[in-house]
Amino acid sequence: MLAFTLRRAIQAIGVMIAVGVIAFSMFRFAGDPVNQIVSLDTPAAEREAVRKSLGLDDPVPVQFARYFGNAAQFKFGVSYQFRQPVSNLLMERMPATLELAACATVFAMVFGILMGVYSALRRDTILTKFFQAVSLIGISLPTFLIGILLIYLFSVTLGWLPSFGRGDVVRIGWWTTGLLTLSGLKALIMPSITLGLFQMTLIMRLVRAEMLEVLRTDYIRFARARGLTTRAIHFGHALKNTLVPVITVAGLQFGSVIAFAIITETVFQWPGMGLLFVQAVQNVDIPIMAAYLLMVSLIFVTINLVVDILYTIVDPRLRSTIRRPA
Amino acid sequence: MTVPVLSVRNLEVEFLTRRSTLRAINGVSFDIAKGEVLGVVGESGAGKSVTGLAVIGLIDPPGRIAGGEIYLSGTRIDHLPPEEIRRIRGKRIGMIFQDPLTSLNPLYRIGDQIVETIRTHMNLSETAARKRAVDLLAEVGIPAPDKRIDAYPHEFSGGMRQRVVIALAICAEPELIIADEPTTALDVSVQAQIISLIKRLGRDHGTAVMLVTHDMGVIAETSDRVAVMYSGRIAEIGPVQDVVQNPLHPYAKGLMGAIPTLAGEDKRLVQIPGSMPRLSAIPPGCPFNPRCAFVFDRCRVDRPEPLKHGSHAVACHLFDTTPHEAAKETAA
Predict the structure, then answer these.
(1) Rounded distance, CA B68 to CA B56, Å?
(2) Which CATH code, of 3.40.50.300, 3.40.50.970, 1.10.3720.10, 2.40.50.140, is assigned to A86-272?
(3) How high is the ipTM of this complex?
């Protein structure tokens, strides 16, 4: 188990180095960074001075080593547009994104699993047909459209929920949270639904398909022949077997929820990392873009690692193959 | 005479399809006494497994029991509401399925699965149920049961898993065990062990056993009586010695003739020409008539009912001594 975790951790570091190379190469291919810092009429000598002060005249491998060394300590340089360290900007914005992503994922998991299980067990009810219609909408409508429709309905027409922003936030250490105030919670509702709807339909469809599959297996038939209660069969035996693949998908989806929060954050003007990234793209603020790329891949890699480990906890068959590698 | 543990009377099972209703079981009747092993043989699709599933109430839609009665120790059970038949399953009737590799839930320790079943049917504490589970594992021949109880299904071999499945089937001391091809998925050497285990359990506990298989060798070794099924009907039923050595029904004759012997006079094995009719195309009269070497006119119009003939009962017009109405009509 430990060897397995270590092996996966080493693979994860390899992935991060590869992403680092890509992030670093952005600096070199997106034009000369000096041009973005200085104004058009800056004399050549001054440009050279800036170049030297930023270490841009060093050989490429040296620059890369320095960049990666700094990145490993969460130093990503200074933003061109804000003239502030990128890490400070990211840290400031990260709680908003993580809270939004977590709420969206919880929403997607809870409703996705409930609806999936229900529609697998009661195949021909009206509610099941309704759930399937909802899932079709969730899968086919683009995120920004759902967000705009929600704003139109609940903010413009009904005036129940705020149309943008995080509401009031409470500061706990460096972390700002909107979970402790009423306006913060209200502001979370629509962005969470918008962001989580796609994942919810995905999970619902997956749970439904898996559950139907599991209910057909021999061990479920044998469980029925043993006279177990329907409840024990459905929620003890069938659901646990259903959740093995669901864990993987839901885990990996958490990564994409964070990455694709960009669109939702733009629609709702949510002050998170995604919005910061969009602004950075508009202003060719490469340090922020590179840092964002690194952060997102770090989150993805971490989630992958956690999912792998979770997998072995749920499924004993994997545990033994890991103990005795073939 | 004592009441048989299982008594099936004129059982009919149908499957509703889009186009028509297929009758998988058509008027099957048999009894199994306490401590008796009834072997049920026949080709694939003859209705052996469906009969077993009907008895335990596990025919799923689109299938349904369309007629007949099933009695368990004198009580009728085929029309009980789902919750009551559920209480009977596992408690009064244990079932063993064909494939031990897929019968156990891979995510739960075998001990948890046994304890769960025991506690569903018996009013025992967790510790008492666990102790009983260890005893059961010992009884079915799992070595070091107090350690193995915490193992997962994938940590057992196929034969050992089938032993666990048997332990699960007998954990509430059922009156009847339905074993649906319990040895088909196992090695020949393991088969013999499982067969003698089922036989021993039946003897020790006085449990009635319905053993469904297509392996005549298994039947000959284990059963007291044997029922030969063909196309949803019982063709012949009788004591195992008589049926194996002196089969009457042409189909049963064909089945016995197809068993290779070690004595090996270099004879060709007899094979029955053709194959069993599909459920949607069962011929009128005797369902075996297109393949039968002794077919005569009556077989094509009149369905034979099982009639007593010595120790057997056989559904074949060859052994029907009463004059036939259709024959009378032709004569007239």
Answers:
(1) 14
(2) 1.10.3720.10
(3) 0.82
For chain B, strand residue ranges (E) read: 6-16, 21-32, 37-41, 63-72, 75-76, 93-96, 176-180, 208-212, 225-230, 233-239, 307-309, 312-314
Q: Read off the CATH number of the domain in which B81 is found.
A: 3.40.50.300
Could B89 and A226 be called an inter-chain contact, meaning their C-beta atoms sit closer than 8 Å? yes
Q: Say if residue B315 is in the same domain as residue B232.
A: yes
Residue A152 DSSP code:
I
Greatest distance between any 2 Cα atoms in chain B: 78
Examine the domain organization and report whether B85 and B231 are in the same domain: yes
**Is the model's pLDDT at A243 over the cut of 50?**
yes
CB pairs under 8 A between A and B: 79
Per DSSP, the three-state class of A23 is helix
Nearest Cβ partner of A225 from B58, B106, B172? B58
What is the per-residue pLDDT across A86-142, written as a single tens digit (0 to 9) for each?
Answer: 888 888 888 888 888 889 989 999 999 999 999 988 888 889 888 888 888 888 888
CB B53 within 8 A of CB A224: no
Structural contact between residues A267 and A165, judged by C-beta atoms closer than 8 angstroms: no
Cα–Cα nearest to B82, from A232, A227, A235: A227
Q: Does B143 lie in the same domain as B14?
A: no
CA–CA distance from B254 to each of A18, A21, A257, B291 (Å)? 71, 76, 66, 10
The reply to whether B126 falls in a domain is yes
Output the DSSP codes for B255-293: HHHTS--SS--SPPPP--SS-PPPGGGPPSS-TTGGG-T
Could you tell me the two tokens for A218? Answer: 């021999």
Residue A213 structure tokens: 């599959």
Q: Do residues B21 and B164 share a domain? A: no
In this complex, is the C-beta atom of A247 within 8 Å of any C-beta atom belonging to chain B?
no
Q: β-strands A175-177, B6-16: how paired?
A: unpaired
Q: Are residues B119 and B253 in the same domain?
A: no
Which residue in B87, B108, B165 is closest to A227 by CB distance? Answer: B87
pLDDT tens, position by position, A47-79 = 888 777 777 777 878 888 888 888 888 788 777
Q: Give the distance from residue A320's alpha carbon to the nearest chain B alpha carbon, in angstroms.
A: 9
**Structural domain tally of chain B?**
2
B5: phi then psi, degrees, rounded to nearest 5: -65, -50
Task: Report the gap between the CA of A230 and the closest CA in chain B (Å).
Answer: 9
What pLDDT, on a 0 to 100 scale, did the predictor assign at position B332?
Answer: 41
- Tokens for A286, please give them: 């490469």
Residue B165, domain extent: 104-172
Q: Hey, are the CB atoms on A225 and B154 less than 8 Å from each other?
A: no
Q: What is the pLDDT, as a whole number, of residue B331? A: 44
* Distance in angstroms (rounded) separating the CA atoms of residues A76 and A62: 16
Q: Name which residue leads in pLDDT, B318 or B263.
A: B318
Residue B71 resides in a domain: yes
Looking at the fold, whether B212 and B85 belong to one and the same domain comes out as yes
Q: Least CB-CB distance to A222: which of B97, B109, B172?
A: B97
Chain B contact for A224 (CB, 8 A cutoff): yes
Domain ranges within chain A, ordered by starting residue: 86-272
Instruction: Extract the tokens encoding B192.
Output: 């013999």
